[in-house]
Amino acid sequence: MAGIIQPKVLKGFRDFLPTTEIPRRHLIRALEDHFSSYGYVPIDTPVLEYAEILLSKGGGETDKQTYRFTDHGGRDVSLRFDLTVPFARFVSAHKNELAMPFRRYHIAKAWRGENTQKGRYREFIQCDFDIVGTDSATADLEIMLMMAEGLRTLKAGEVTIRFNHRGLFNLLLEKLGIGEKTAEVLRIVDKLAKIGEAEVQNQLSALVGDEGAETLLDFIVAEEDNRATLAKMIRLAGAEDTGGNSPLGRLEAILAAVEDMGESARFTLDPSITRGLDYYTGIVFETFLTDLPRLGSVCSGGRYDNLTGLFMKEPVTGVGASIGLDRLMAGLEELGRLESASSNTDLLVMMLDESLMSHYQKLAQSFRAVGVRTEIYPEAKKMGAQFKFAESKGAKLALIVGGNEHENAVVTLKDLEKRENHENLSLQDALTKAQNLLTHS
Amino acid sequence: MAGIIQPKVLKGFRDFLPTTEIPRRHLIRALEDHFSSYGYVPIDTPVLEYAEILLSKGGGETDKQTYRFTDHGGRDVSLRFDLTVPFARFVSAHKNELAMPFRRYHIAKAWRGENTQKGRYREFIQCDFDIVGTDSATADLEIMLMMAEGLRTLKAGEVTIRFNHRGLFNLLLEKLGIGEKTAEVLRIVDKLAKIGEAEVQNQLSALVGDEGAETLLDFIVAEEDNRATLAKMIRLAGAEDTGGNSPLGRLEAILAAVEDMGESARFTLDPSITRGLDYYTGIVFETFLTDLPRLGSVCSGGRYDNLTGLFMKEPVTGVGASIGLDRLMAGLEELGRLESASSNTDLLVMMLDESLMSHYQKLAQSFRAVGVRTEIYPEAKKMGAQFKFAESKGAKLALIVGGNEHENAVVTLKDLEKRENHENLSLQDALTKAQNLLTHS
To answer: ipTM for the complex?
Structure first.
């Protein structure tokens, strides 16, 4: 005989018990409703794809972290490490079936074999939403407004959206004559919040010299208000073109709209936000909870000029963002705003007599039909054990029906919180009573 | 420069465009609500597990079909091929955190490298629901009632539940002295619907001789009603024990409850239903759509005495079922009952002037706040192009606001189906009008 196998999960992977999975499902459904209210539609793509497709960008870290293997048919395959590359492949494959501009959301798992010591998980849920097929300012604005609204919907409270335009940053680098060092500069600037100004200046000095480092640092530190910050950025980067699609024109259009909407307090122009990654080309942004800023960004993204370049010649521009659901849930929990439901049971039908099981089933169906989530205790155990079970499920009501009640076509409804019995009720009265007690509890 | 990569998915895997993903998400949410109304709670487990855990049963076919590889840490891992084995592992790992009896549902993907020529997919969604920790007849009944109710909720119409008890079948095999050939007999009997009575008899004869084959065939063919079928089963299997937990006692309890609930037409005792798999030990069942019987079973399951035997010594009994969502969706589509939504857009805000973008965003927020799913056209293209887009999204309404309307604080609401303009409306009137038009369309 085989021995007992230890029922453990892989490092960096997690089981979700009802206590966490119920609030997680509720968050996901609230996000689905939120995205849908903006006309975004869901799509789905395979978890497993050709490695060539997922890893074609050849990013070193990502490649190392991606789960990759050879399948039964000898194919070189990988588990997706994000939802962006699969979306690029999807848009390329179905371009002719999608009405452009195309707004989609995708809430699904992705996997990275990351070092779990950072408190990161190897299996995580991404919530991505994008508009592709338009390079308009209103699309940039919409994605940022959706983030803020979405987080409020999830009771995360007030947020600050820190945004920037990569194009203006690039202008500065060109003016400084260090355009070829863009990637390294971005990597350093991206660490500002983590390592501080002094260390960023040290590292930049080593890369581009003291003078360049000083200008860069001056550039990336935000001023007291958005207009002052923009004025400084224009001065340092020497930006002149204010056309609608120029970096400066785009920033000005966004700023004007934000001011007009009375959203200035929520939107901060922050030139240090660059999102590191190379594929962003326009507006970039990160979102922080006002009540928990040190949590870091819970939703970020930006505009990319050529999402689909790897898969087709015709470029597709887009703007999108991704919510880190794990981090957000941790934040909501810390703020005490994560729903604490661990059960779906409003009412427990007590089992007094197993021969009445069809009667209990019929009663339960009547309660469910009026919206009362109803569970039946499946064995005729002692009442004490059954009440204890009801309590462990947080059920507010119990339905007690023995042989006498059955014969007289009545029921007893017990309010478990007030420990109050409502006896000899007709089924109809019990249904009404239950609905009232649940609404007002 | 790297060449263009073909944006194709792996064989047996699928992209879901909004046209299919919207109805699929709606089905899943309807199932979540249905399961919750019975007090079932959601859980989640990792997609990737130790191969030792998933494959410990050592089933030949399953092993060959499972995606298995060595991860970065040298661990032997697999993608789950169903949700049952992970649930067994989950229950064993968290036994002390779960109030028993424990009712859970799990709707998630699983993967099998199956031969795709059968019209099967290598990536598919399972919808599992189980009650563990009780061996009661009411739990068996509840799972079957939930299947029937759930399918009606999804507009699949009337269903027939074909059920049986594996214990009675085992009694017969023992009486015939062929208990050691149970697995082979089950494999043959399970093919009855596919290969027909004559071929089943041939194969059984070769295995157990003509006489045994004749008795077996007699046994598995249902009579005209449940009571007659049961009488024949009792006679052939020589069943005598009618105790509550005996196979016969259990079948009689279920039959009595089904009759008492007026559900006899829906529940058919069918001794040919055995569910092949070895781990079922009690009640087993399959569900067929009355309007599309040849689709095959869309939901099936049964009772297992020892779910967790591989992971702990203490046995945990349970009963559960699994809905094949892909097959069910194919059936609903064939019946013309699959929702044909391909969009989440009720109203399109037309973009007449890009400088009004903050105004359009504010208007859109007002409509969303009253439940109107509102998309903004992101560029000031010709009206014709924008109306065509609205049509392609199935939007019922358009909001038209140019400079004049903006100055006068009015809007034009266009009913796109009736091609009717409602002009010079205040925002408040437009909101009410939009709600009315959407409710009554």
So the answer is: 0.94
